Structure formats: C-alpha cells, structure tokens
Amino acid sequence: MPLDLYEFIKLLTVIFIIIVPGYLWSFLFSKHLTCLERFVFGFVIGIGVLISALFIFNIIFDAKITQTFTILLFILYTVPVLVLYGLHIYRFGLPTIDFTPIKNKKFLLLTCILLFTAFMTFLPHLSNSYSLPFHVDEWIHWSYSRAIMEGGSISFANPYTGIGTIANTEIGFHLATSCIRWLTGCNLLTIFLFMPTVIGIFVSLTAFNIGERSKRKFGLESAFLVGFIPTTVRLLGPSFYVAVTLGLLLLIFIIWVGQLKKMQGALLMAICAWLMFIVHPPTALAGIIIMFIFSVFLAIGKEYKIALLTGIFSLISVLSIFISYYFTETWDRYVEMFLQATYGKEYLLGLPEIWVNFEYLGILTWVLFVIGVYYSISIGGSLKRTLSFSSIMFIIIIGFYTKLNYGVPIIYERTFLYLFLLVTLVAGVGLSELRKAIEIIAKKNTFKKFKQLSKNSGYILTIAICGSLLLITVPVHVGLPYYQMIDEKDYEAFIWIENNIDDYRDENHSYEKAAVHPFKASPFSAITGLYTISSTMHPLYGYELHTDMEKFLNEKCVNTSFLEQHELSVIYGHCDNEYSEEVYENVYLYGGMPPTANFTYLPDNPDINDTIYFTSNFTTPYGRITMWEWNFGDGNISYGETTGLEFDGIDDYVEIHDNPSLDVTDSITLEMWVKPKIKSQKMVLTGKRGAYQIWCSNNTWYFGVFNESGYHGSGYSLTAVPTEEWAHVVGIYNSNLSNGQVQIWINGVKENSRNHTGSIKNTGNPFRIGGKLSSWGDAYFNGDIANVRIYKRALTPAEISQNYNATSGEDIIKSDLVSWWKMDEMGKTAQDPTGNNEATIFGAKWINVASHKYNQSGTYQVTLAVLNEKGLDYSISKNITIH
Fold it and tell me: In three state form, how does the secondary structure of 749-770 look?
C-alpha cells in the first residue's frame, strides 16, 4: 500500500500552523530564546493548551469535545498573540530575517542529524515494507481516540465490546490525537505512521537546544545520539505512536525548561508535569523525579531561589495529580499501585522480564555515557549533574524491580525508555568532552608534519565514533523483529466496512458486532468501529471464546447457531453460510435465518357463524416473531392476540435477574396460568430455587417454600394436572396464621394446605419461569404459561376468585403486587410494568391466537404471514371449508 504524500504534506503544514502561535507566545515567556527553541516551544505549548482546555472543559463543565470546539479553542489561543504581534509590527515595523544561521556549518549538521533521526524513527516501516501500525498498543490508542471523537467525551463505552466504560489513563494522548486529526484533516493512518517521526525530530531538536545552552556545548552530539533510542515490541519506543512517545518529548522539554532557571520556567515545569500525567502517568513520575533532583543540585550550587521555586512547583505538580485522582476514577489503578508499592507491596510482572541489550544504543554510546557521567559530576553544572544522577536513579528503579520485585510493573517497563533518553544526553556530554580533551592533547603534542591533522583531531575522533555507531548499531535496529497484526488487504477491507456499513443498516439490522479472528480483533474494532467478542491480544477479552471463534471461521462460518448465540451480524473471513451475503471480499453480512410458519384451527369442520380459533405454530430457531397477520380469505385481516409463551420441555425458560423486590421473606402469593401439553411432567414451573417454587410431579401441582433453617414445607393439589387446558395455579404462604400455612389453589379452589413457619430464605438466585430451577437436575416445562404474578402477602379467597374470574387487567388485584409478567407482547423479553423486573426469554415462543366467523359457506384460503425481529418474513396458506 503506497504512502499518501499529499496526506503527509498536509500533516506537516498544519503542524507548522500549530507551532506559529506558540512561537509568538514564547516572546512573552522569554526574550532570550533561539529560533529553534521557540520552534519546539510553539509545538509543545500549542498541543498542551489544546489538551488541557479540552480536558478541563469536558470534566468540569461537561462540554462536548468536537472538531468545531477544538478549532474554536485554537482560534482563541491564536488570535490574541497575532493581534499583539500585529501591533508590534505597526509600532516597530517588520522584523529583519537573519539567514546567516542557515549558512552555519552547525545548522547544516543539525539538519542532517534531524533527517537521520527521522530515518531511524521511520526505520521499522522501511525495513519491513509495512505501512501500518505494528504494535497492538497503537491499535488501542487508535480505537480510544476514535471513541473520543465519536462520543465527544473523555469517558466512553468500551470500543471493543460496547460493555462498560473505559478508565482512560492516557486521555491526554488521545485528546492530542483527536486535535491533530481535526486540525489537519488527515486520516488516522497518516497520523499513526508519521507523528512518531515528527515527535522524534522535536525530541532530537530539544536535545540540541539543551546542549547549546550549556557553557560546554554538546548539542549536536546529543541530538545525533537521540536517533539511536530503540523501539522494540517489549519496550515500545519512539517509532511507535503510543502515549510514552509523546511523553518522551514532554520529559525532555521539562529538562530544557529547567535549564532556563527562571520563575516562569519552574511554573511551566509543574504545568508540564501535570500534562504528562494525563498523557502518560509513568512519564509524569519520571519528570517529577528529575525535577526534585534538579532542585537539590540547584540548592547545592547555591541557586536557592530557583531551587526553592522548582521544589515548590514540583510539589504543586504532585498535588495537582492527586487532585485529578480525587475528582475522577480514571487514574485510581495507577495511583493506588504506586502507593501500595511504596509501602512494599510486591507486584510481579505479567510479561517476560526485559533483557537488557546494550547493542540497542550501541556499546560506544554506553562508554560515552560513563565518560559523560564523570565529566558531569566533576565539572558540570546543576543540569548535567541532574541528568547523570537521574540516569543512576532510573537504573536503581530497574534493579529494584529486577532483583527484588519491588515497584510497579509499568514503571519498570517504561523506565528503560527514560533511561535511554538520559543516556543519550549524558553520552552527548561524554562525546563532546572527549573531543575537547583530544584537541587539548593534540595541541600540546603538535607535530609539524601532522599539524592540520592535530588541529582537527577532535572532529576526526567524533566522526570515527559516529561512523562506527552507524555501522554497528543501525543494522541492529534493522534486524529488530516486529509482528504484524493485519496485512494491507485486511486494512483495505476494514476501511471498506467503516465507510460503507451504514448503507446496509436499517431498523432491523444494526450490523454492529462482528465475527473476526481473535488476533485481529483489536485493529478490526479500531478501524471499523464495530464490536467483537474475543481477543487474544491486548486488550484481552472473551479469551474463553477464542477457540470457538477460530473453529467457526475455519469451518467457513457455517455454524449459524454460533452467529445467533453471540448476536454476530458481520463476518470477516471465507464464508459459506447460506444466510450470509458477501458485500466485499471476505466481508459478509448475516441478516438472520428466516422463520417458518404453520397454524391449526378448531373446530375441524366449521359451520356458518361458528367461532373458529386459529393458533399459530411456527419455528424460528433464532430471534423472535414480532408480527402475525391473519388473512381469512374473505376480505378480513387480523393481527391476532398474544396469549402467553410456549415452552418446548427441552431447554426453554425465562429468567429474571435477582432483585431485592423478588426476595419476599414473609407472606407471599405466586400465581400463574398454565396449559400443559403432556402428563407426568416432573419439573419446576416457576420461582426462585431454594426460596419459593411451584412445580408439578406425577400429575400433581405443588407449591413450596424454604425457611431460613432450610426446612421445606409444601402443599400439593388433589386434582390431576390437565393437558391442553388452561389452569389457574396459585401458591400461598401465609405466615400470619397461628402456625403458618402453605396453600395451593387450582382454578379458584383451595385444594390443600400444610402448616409451615419461619421466614422465607433469601437465596440470591434468579427468578425463573418454565424450568432450570430443580434441585434434582434441570427439568423443563412442556406447555404454555401466561400471567405470572408475585404478591408480597397472602391473597384472600375472595381476591383469588377475583383474579381467576378476571376478564381484563383492570379486574386484577393490584395491592402489594410485586411483579406481573402478562406475556401478551412480542420481542426478546417479557416486560414487568409493575416492578420493572424485565424477563429474558431463552427459547420460549410467543403464542398468537386469532378468531373469526364466516357468514357464508364455501372454501376460503387462510394465510398466516409472520415477521421476525430481523425483518425476515414467511407466509403459509391453507384452505378451510365452511359448511
């Protein structure tokens, strides 16, 4: 897949536009910055202002994060400084542009170094001929950034499963990505491919600025060595567009700000530390460590004022972090892990231990680092000593975790990158000081024949060392292995889904959940915005389903039950499912399996003006029937009446999650209408296992309750269970009677009772109807059920009779009614308008009945048409003869 040059140019153009206002604001910050320092300042402050403003406005004022709002913020940030600059031009005229630095050899060398850094940052894509993100973390950041842009909030639903809310600990990074996306108009692929290179150039440029502010300059050396900071699958690094990459820029920017030794610089350090916290919390900790060490060395150097300010603002940054922690739950895990680790709690790493490889930076870089530490401590100022001691501190942190398992895993993992960054800076000091030492030695031992050689000996040594690093270390970086979660063909298919899936959606088909290989689930959801059910990579979810998913895909997706069970409607893979339609190469849409319909009627041989009852008999293995239409063939149409649920006696049941309202512990009435299809059923009809239940066994109805001690009392009917007839069954436990009593009523008549005392046991089990409740093993009811009601008291005989004889819902007793499942609707659930205890239907089918009278004899064609919840229909016709 070729890289889009236009997208890249567009990205660079808008990055420059982002820099401009910050560049101008830098004159208010300090009048003594170089052009290159203002350049970095402009980018970091521009992105920082947007991130902070969006975060604060959303979390405090609940302002929606949108492209329009982001552009408005940028305009509000830009216009004032342009006005000020315009007034300055009006008063003093246009500034003169000095082009002499461009002719400077140092500038030309820096340009070459920045190009080298860009090359090294983009090297994984070049060496692997791969123009997509490599690491799974990049795909996660892609999906989270997309979720923010689509949802307009820093709090959003899980973009992989749609279940739960994400605690987004790196929200600042995703806000930065959103801002760049909205301001540049570039697609996310362009940002994820090229922003690491942009950030890498700024890191290298900042290293140069730090070195050039030192009395004993080391800018070029450090800027060059920054390009060797490695990117690996285990460590992450500057070649991946991940939060820690932006964190490295903020970290080195803090070091540069501290070097200015100003009050506003100390304040800016604290602000940057907070910004790092919302971008990447571990990097914020590294920044605070560096700030504290720097304040100590400032005090040792008798720069007490700036040392005090730096220390105070370091504490303020820590305080701001804890305030953010207090007001949100986003960073609970990070902060609590850090606090617990401080008290000595052991955290074992879930991933393999990191193998320290000195070849990443190059052995020569580490040698130069040792030399740099020596010179920094012996003759260096506060900053150089801070860099050296901070490096040593990071080595200690790594050692503590490696040897003692002390600390937080994420801090251990990311500390390697912070160490590498500081090592390149200190190694730059070492290379610079080594060059100067060689020059001094050469001047003292100048030979006439080699005068020119002696004069340039330091530069020759520098070139030799840099050349050796290039020859030895670049091949190491080229040989680093990376995994590829998807190929370019996958990406093109995923982009097609993203761009076209809306064209296929309608009121019956949302097409929002997909079957895809678990290894590709993360990039699939990131790109398409669809949900998946199983991932074998981070974030790990539905792992127990990964074998089933792989089997489903390997068997060419023929298992329709798997699709229905997990509500999957999009398939990515080779598919031979007859109910799926291929809409793009290897992209299929499953619209559902159509229903089938049949019906019966009574009487079998009707006469004129007989009331004929038509009962639907349909099979729809998946989904629910949502509409019945009866065409009686004489110009009359009916949509029938839903009269209950039909249970197959095999595996059908209805379930209501446990709710305190269903935990009736005193007197109770459990009431229902049932129509068994067979005799000699042994099953639990309805109730809560271990609490209260109605069941039948050996053609007898039973109602029983368990008291707190587990003792079971039950009453049983004297009338045999009828078949193909509706029966009104009521179970009552009346604890207000002197001995307590369990009663069972059939069709308005009390058939039996039994003494029983104690409160009904609260089991916490779900309430079920139709089966899956029995203590002797799951057993299921074969027949029809309707109008299930629970009262939190014992109904009186008169009230039972009233409910039995009721002809409408208006006649039903409402006093102390806890829940009422009328079962007269359609859909996947049975509603409870009384107690809001919605019931989920597992397998049971709605019963639809219609009645009609013919006033003329003859033969009529009766047609039943059914429609399921996915908009699929089926119709069947039968002839009926009226005598």
Answer: EEEEEEECCCCECCCCCCEEEC
